[in-house]
From TrEMBL:
The active site is at C352 (proton donor). Substrate binds at R286, R322, Y326, E353, Y381. This is Diaminopimelate decarboxylase. SUPFAM superfamilies: Alanine racemase C-terminal domain-like, PLP-binding barrel. The modification N6-(pyridoxal phosphate)lysine is found at K64. Gene3D superfamilies: Alanine racemase, Lyase, Ornithine Decarboxylase, Chain A, domain 1. It comes from Granulicella arctica. The gene is lysA.
Amino acid sequence: MIISHRPFHYRNRRLHCDGVDLTTLAAEQGTPLYVYSAEQIIHRLSLFGEAFAGRAHTVCYSVKANSSLAILRLLAEQGAGFDIVSGGELERVRKASKAALKRIVFSGVGKQVWEIDAALKADILIFNVESEAELALLAERAKLLGKRARFALRVNPDVFADTHPYISTGLREHKFGIDIGLARAIYRKAAKSAWLDPAGVSVHIGSQIRSVEPFAAALKRVLALIGELKQDGMDIRYVDAGGGLGIEYGAGPFDPETQVKGYAAALQRIFSEAGLDPHLLLEPGRFIVAQAGALLTQVLYVKKNGAKTFVITDAGMNDLIRPSLYQAHHEILPVKQSKGAEDVVDVVGPVCESGDFFARDRAMPKVKRGDLVVLLDAGAYGMSLSSNYNTRFRPAEVLVEGDEARLVRRRETMKDLLGPEILT
Ligand SMILES: *Cc1c(COP(=O)(O)O)cnc(C)c1O
């Protein structure tokens, strides 16, 4: 398999991440281990900057895709803003970069009082409000704290995005956002409040979307609404186009630069048609970090059950749940390059669930106990969706910077796992 557009490559028949030999790294840090390329993350961010040059914009990286403090700091140093969905993510951004607090957009359907208060005090850029009840609460908290809250309604444009149903969000039947047909009236009412500043309109139609049409269709509806709100006298300065730009998880051809350029061209066309020029906010998550990362794991056993061969790895669904949750495909490569025979196998973890698998009936080079393999494209929704199910330690994380590998999260210990529990 050709490992294009990813930081992973063979050198002397050993898999490397940029300049770092993964065999050596596994010996030093153990497995399972998440490995990320700083260079690839910065490169992906820069693609947005280049494609949207000439338009006032801020890339607000979606923290939930991978919330590692080291990655947040790396992105903040490049000037990125952040899309957060909880008070916990707000604290992560604060810890990574105080200067980035003012570039935060706060999304999410269930914001709590303490989270709203913390974001108001931090003077974030804008709240993406998802219901009238939330808007009322925001006004109440803003008044109490003596702040004027900048907000955008997250509208639901009723656009179908062809992706996995669990990560599609732009239809009326989804829990997200406010029906775009109702938005104008809500803005008008909110504009009367001294504590609310109707500063933007936002939309996010889902994740892992591979064609640009739904993004363009959603933006078109949003800009039409902004036109109406301007007629109503509102100073709408921001349009948030959300995240959701997809990647190629398989071995197929994929050029990230072409992808972002096509996306930008589609959005730019809609802007020109509408004759509006608000500051554009973008919330990519997956596109920036997914392919920069991989999960490095060791083969524990190879076993045959009837006609099936199972490769059992020391990583499981608690470490990377995407295959189990979304039937997601991840390419799997042996760390030692092999030109030998292939086998058709199921690659599974040690967790006590039949859903604990990484690949089914996958043709791959024969591996044996002790061999290392990597699951590619695990940088997004990997570690951030991990758990301690089966009382397993979550993986350690390493950030590769050129030839250097830096441990950015140590492996958990038994004390981390049992610490919060109370026995009388
Ligand atoms: C999850 C999410 C994103 C990021 O989606 P990606 O597919 O990772 O780009 C952006 N905005 C909102 C509101 C989200 O919920």
